[in-house]
Amino acid sequence: MMLSDFLNVHFITLFLILGFSMKLAMRKSTRDAEIRYLWMTVGCVVVLMFADFLEVVMSQDPDKRFWRILFSVIGYSVRPMAALGIVLVVADRKKKKWPLWIPAIVNSLLMCTAFFSPVAFCFNEEYSFRRGPLGYVVFAVGFLYIIMVLWFTNKRFNEDHPWEKRVLYLCALFVVLATFADALWGGEHLNEAIMIVVVFYYMFIRSQDTNRDALTKLLNRQSFYEDSELYQPQVSAVASLDMNGLKRLNDSQGHDAGDRALSAIGECMLASAGRTVIPYRMGGDEFAILFLRENEYVVQAVLQQIQTKVKDAGLGLSVGYAVRTQNETINELHQLADQKMYVEKSAYYSLPGRNRRRRSD
Q: Strand 235-243 and strand 129-131: pairing?
């Protein structure tokens, strides 16, 4: 009977856990090492699911008070940790992550006081649950992690497609509502909510794999074509950029050196990227930028900034741009920018000592 009750309550959660775990296990390589923290969230949901169920079982026998407290403590400890797993996925990879664990650890220690104090929660003489003055800390920590998820997502993927992030905001609202329901009325829907959000976040991160060039971290050619249609009315200018000397660098120092050079150019372009300046790697040593609602002065300033950064890195770029004056299509603007870029590239190779052997150089 207990097994049938468990399956009846958690069938959807179990299905999501099984399907998502199979998907993660099948993936041999990941975009980021942090993706493994999704396993942490899945594990927390599994623990939470069993802890909540066993707490209900123990509630039927007053002699099981210790075990009921134990499973309650476990459940309240892993609730915020499930959200922490997603925070660790999207947090800044260059910064230390151990401070992010502090709220969850403090919450767990506070919940453990239930063994000897009612400050967090207790079970009264009638064996009914009673929340203490600090009993809502667990939900406050959960809300804090949800805010962190939204903050890090917006910061880390600031230049990416904003409509995709709106789905994540909706997921966050979904978890908040499920948490409120859990805090006020109890129930098991929080487990389902967390797993649904994990699936959506995984889909979002995977979409970054599809849209981005693995070497430079810039958006790729396919994204350029998609964004050209999406932002058609907003595009005010298009720039075409081409690295100088890639063939010579590959021949003299090897393809690893060429890859490092392309990666460095990608970093320089990302440093100037934003909501209205969207850079792409079109393939090989070719790059492009879409400018949204920016005038020619801004276009020139951004391109000059990128060229300066690239020059400081010991590399070179040929650049051309075209500003929309009438109703030119983005393809027409890109072709015009290409023509201007090749004029600058020809001037580069006309200097003594520079032999242009291939177009890709």
A: unpaired
Residue 334's CB is within 10 A of a number of other CB atoms, namely 22
Strands, E assignment, 164-306: 235-243, 277-283, 286-292
Q: Environment class of residue 34 by beta-carbon count within 10 Å: exposed (0-12), middle (13-18) or buried (19+)?
A: middle
Per-residue CA distances from 19 to 22, 84, 172 (Å): 5, 21, 21
Nearest to 83 by CA among 165, 130, 152: 152
Work out the pLDDT band at 351, boundaries 50, 70, 90.
low
Describe the crossing of helices 162-185 and 137-156 by its angle, rounded to 10 degrees. 180
336 Cβ neighbours under 8 A, 6+ residues apart: 238, 320, 322, 328
pTM: 0.67
Backbone angles phi, psi at 123, to 5 degrees: -120, 120
Residue 239: count of CB within 10 angstroms of its CB:
27
Contact 35, 25 (CB under 8 A): no
Positions of E strands within 294-339:
317-323
Q: Under 8 Å CB-to-CB from 85, ≥6 apart: which residues?
A: 37, 38, 39, 40, 41, 42, 44, 198
DSSP per position, 181-193? HHHHH--SHHHHH
Predicted pLDDT at 120: 94
CA distance 233 to 292: 9
Res 28 pLDDT > 70: no
Contact 217, 269 (CB under 8 A): no
Return d(Cα 136, Cα 120) in angstroms, integer. 8
Question: Helices (DSSP H) in 212-276: which residue ranges?
Answer: 221-230, 246-253, 255-271
Q: Apex CA 19: angle with CA 15 and CA 24, to 5°?
A: 145
Rounded distance, CA 144 to CA 93, Å?
20
C-beta neighbour count of 125 within 10 angstroms:
6
Mind listing the pLDDT tens digit for each residue in 268-319? 999 888 888 999 999 989 999 999 999 999 999 999 999 999 999 889 899 9
